[in-house]
């Protein structure tokens, strides 16, 4: 067992963890930006823009993320890591768009009317009043989506050979064949995923509880 958990092997695994977090973080940031734009488009009054956003959201959400990874990597010939980020951004932005749209629709219309009554322009009302309140309600759900992205990065090694956390463990597995070594390695990877995702989920629940009490 000591041969498995050497400094070199642990460093190798944590390099994969760094790539997992990098892909997840960039994807969730881009997805939040694009998801917000899609939500605004779907809530807008322009029928063509609304239809376009609706089609994108429904189409992307109903196609497996695994297929988007294949399409972006093989069809569009994007390099592995950018392909992974792009695929997760495409897929997650559609999921976040519905979360964000729900948050925007959840802000009381009286807030908008009050802002307009104060002489603010509609754009100012949205940016200064509606948007901050909506994001406060949505942030726990957005954080929870981050957990989904982190877990789903494990698809990347088997599809496009990105050596993220799970991929690094699979590479190490080729050098260790004993049952106790395989079990120990999978146990370590499971523990790492659990600690990261449980921490993020706990933060999400804490924020939701705190803001519910504030209201």
UniProtKB/TrEMBL annotation:
**GO CC terms on record?**
ATP-binding cassette (ABC) transporter complex
Q: Where are the transmembrane segments?
A: 12-40, 182-200
Protein topology in the membrane: Multi-pass membrane protein
Where is the protein localized?
Cell membrane
Do you know which InterPro entries this protein is assigned to? AA_ABC_transptr_permease_3TM, ArtM/GltK/GlnP/TcyL/YhdX-like, MetI-like, MetI-like_sf
User: Could you state a single Gene Ontology molecular function term?
Assistant: transmembrane transporter activity
Q: What Pfam families does this protein's entry cite? A: BPD_transp_1 (PF00528)
**Domain ABC transmembrane type-1 positions:** 17-204
Which coarse location class describes where this protein primarily resides?
membrane
**GO:BP terms for this protein?**
amino acid transport
Keyword annotations: Cell membrane, Membrane, Transmembrane, Transmembrane helix, Transport
Family, according to the entry, reads as follows: Belongs to the binding-protein-dependent transport system permease family.
Tell me what this protein is called. Glutamine ABC transporter, permease protein GlnP
What organism is the protein native to? Streptococcus pseudoporcinus LQ 940-04
Q: What's the source species' lineage? A: Bacteria, Bacillati, Bacillota, Bacilli, Lactobacillales
């Amino acid at each position: 067992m000591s041969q498995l958990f050497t400094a070199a092997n642990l460093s190798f695994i944590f390099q994969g963890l760094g790539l997992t977090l990098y892909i997840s973080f960039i994807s969730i940031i881009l997805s939040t930006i694009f998801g917000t734009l899609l939500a605004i488009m779907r809530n807008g009054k322009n029928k063509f823009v609304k239809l376009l956003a609706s089609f994108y959201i429904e189409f992307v959400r109903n196609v497996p993320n695994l297929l988007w990874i294949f399409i972006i990597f093989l069809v569009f010939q994007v390099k592995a890591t950018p392909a992974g980020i792009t695929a997760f951004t495409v897929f997650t932005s559609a999921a976040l768009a519905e979360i964000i749209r729900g948050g925007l629709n959840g802000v009381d219309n009286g807030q908008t009317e009050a802002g307009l009554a104060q002489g603010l322009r509609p754009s100012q009302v949205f940016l200064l009043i509606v948007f901050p309140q909506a994001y406060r309600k949505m942030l726990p759900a957005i954080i929870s989506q981050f957990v989904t992205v982190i877990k789903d990065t494990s698809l990347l090694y088997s599809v496009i050979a990105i050596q993220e956390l799970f991929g690094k463990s699979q590479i190490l597995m080729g050098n260790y064949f004993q049952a106790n070594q395989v079990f120990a390695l999978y146990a370590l990877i499971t523990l790492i995923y659990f600690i990261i995702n449980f921490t993020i989920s706990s933060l999400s629940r804490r924020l939701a509880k705190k803001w519910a009490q504030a209201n």
